[in-house]
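Please complete every field before forwarding. Incomplete forms are returned to the sender.

SECTION A: IDENTIFIERS
Entry label: holo-143
Bound molecule: zinc ion
Molecule representation: SMILES string

SECTION B: INPUTS
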Amino acid sequence: MTETIEKPKAQVLVGETSPEPGGRWELQLTIRTKMIGVGAIKAVADFVRIGAQFAGQTQIAIGVKGQELPSRLGDIEGEMTASDVALDLQVHEGFLKAYRFHCTGQAVDDGARYEGSWHAPCVHPADCNCEGTTDDFVMVRLD
Ligand SMILES: [Zn+2]
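SECTION C: PREDICTED COMPLEX
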């Protein structure tokens, strides 16, 4: 019966090596747009790890001006070492669906926290020549 439970995308990583729990993490991306001002994209996910690779499924909460917009389903996957992290965040619903957030950062606090920047390519490359968007992110281990 439990075999029918929907598995996160991390399942794709499963080969001969068994995945291990990778802890619960909170990811927070700073966002600044003309439309909404300064806000944050927050996601808490239980990661599954195989070596340096990890993945998790999450609800994305978008906080703007003290309010939270409805949460959205999202995926996080990437690679993490004791010193560095590189991950992609993809939101599956809502106005952020078109974006791919690529985060790269370095460990602080003995690897319980990573800090760095995220980049999202321009979503209108045909009629906009910008470099996309970049801002700060932090990822903190909750347990
Ligand atoms: Zn653009």
